[in-house]
Amino acid sequence: MISFFLRLVSYQLKIYNYNLMYYLYDAGKYRSRDISFWNQSEDLHCPLVAKSLSRNKYQEIKSCLHFNDNSTLNPNIHGKDFKIEPLYKMLNKEFKKFGFFDENMSVDEQIVKYYGRSSLKQYIRGKPIRFGFKNWILSGEHGYCYHADLYCGKSDAPDELKHLGVSSQVVGKMAMLLPDPLNQYQLFFDNYFTSLKLMYFLTEKRLPAIGTARECRLQRCPLLTDKELRKAGRGAMDCAFDLKNEIGVCKWNDNKPVTVVTNHAPLDFSQSEVQRRQKGSSAISVRIPEVVKAYNAGMGFVDQLDWNVAKYRVGIRSKKWYWCLFTNLLDVTVVNACILFNMANPTNEVSHHSV
Predict the structure, then answer these.
(1) How far is CA 302 from CA 28, 39, 136, 326, in A?
(2) Exposed, middle or buried, 240 (CB in 10 Å: 0-12/13-18/19+)?
(3) Domain residue ranges in the chain
(4) CA 47, 51, 54, 57: dihedral to nearest 10 degrees?
(5) In Å, how far are 258, 260, 272, 296 from 288, measured between CA atoms?
(6) CA pair distance 115, 258, nearest whole angstrom
(7) What does R_g of the chain's alpha carbons equal in angstroms?
(8) Measured between alpha carbons, how far is 61 from 34 in angstroms, rounded to an integer?
(9) How far apart are CA 255 and CA 201, in angstroms?
(10) CB neighbour burial string for 176-186, b if at least 16 within 10 angstroms, e if fewer
(11) Where are the beta strands (DSSP E) in the chain?
(12) CA 321 – CA 152 distance, rounded (Å)
């Protein structure tokens, strides 16, 4: 009797998740409430959902949905992500089930919109989504998410990463997930993570990496100042090398100076040309270092993931603070499944227009 009950509950949970994914497909943004699927109006009623699960059962599952046992919560031991942590661990394991099949990968943040009250909520000025939870994402060039971590503030790091800064430890942890040999991969990240200590660490691991950097993290590297580069004109650059540790730093002036750090060997700062358009004039050719072009080509993988997720995002709301994290992980899982399907069936690809 107990096994039958468990099978029944498992079946209902599957139906519940299928309904959430149908909401994702059915452009749920046009529905003001999720229970409108059971509305008898012709323009709102959805037989596929209404016949698979009753409205009361749907609401009961939604109100009782938990991912951890609250009775075991100990604030002195468990972190702030206690309620959602098991789901992250399970999905991260499944995401890496088929290995790392992308050579180029990027580490970046993903913001999950949330306007309620939570100690984990972040405010980031100047971002399209200013309020929400922050995820650290390791994504491949297909937009496939290999690993997602919820940012919970400063946390304990492995001994070999403790000498890095808090932000650089994020990349260090992601790098430790990659299998040997590490030189078959290439990692990209922005100036929030980059430091010379991080580059030294990745060089020891023989993991090629490129990242933009802030001036305060370059340990007084002898480069031209921003003012001197602007005077030299658009396309001017200055380079510095640490031959012992195989670290190169390139500072290049476009609309404004940008600094790129790499540990590639041999260090290649050769230049090519790109077209830039100025106000009131035709396009001009500007010389650009190859390392900057490589960074621009490899840094947008997490943005590609966000773009795919935003196409059919689950819009169902809940009073639980972790609900938006759950639906976001559901969206990411669907995107990953679509990418795997397209890779396995190249002649029958599914795009975001036909999901």
Answers:
(1) 24, 38, 10, 18
(2) middle
(3) 1-65, 85-302
(4) -120
(5) 11, 12, 5, 11
(6) 34
(7) 24
(8) 13
(9) 32
(10) eebeeebeebb
(11) 104-113, 122-123, 131-140, 145-150, 186-189, 209-212, 237-242, 247-253, 257-262, 271-277, 283-289
(12) 14
pTM of the model: 0.86
Q: For tokens 């949905």, name the residue.
A: 65
3-state secondary structure of 337: helix
- Both tokens assigned to 277: 């358009």
Omega before residue 266 within 30° of 0, cis: yes
Give the CB-side neighbour count of residue 32, counting CA atoms within 13 A: 2
Residue with tokens 């010389």: 287
Of 84, 100, 87, 199, nearest to 140 (Cα)? 100
Residues shown for the chain:
355
**Dihedral sign (CA 115, 121, 125, 129):** negative
Return averaged pLDDT per consecutive 10 residues of the chain, 355 residues in all: 43 59 50 73 79 84 87 83 92 94 94 91 87 95 95 84 90 92 90 94 92 91 90 88 88 90 73 72 81 90 93 84 93 93 82 54
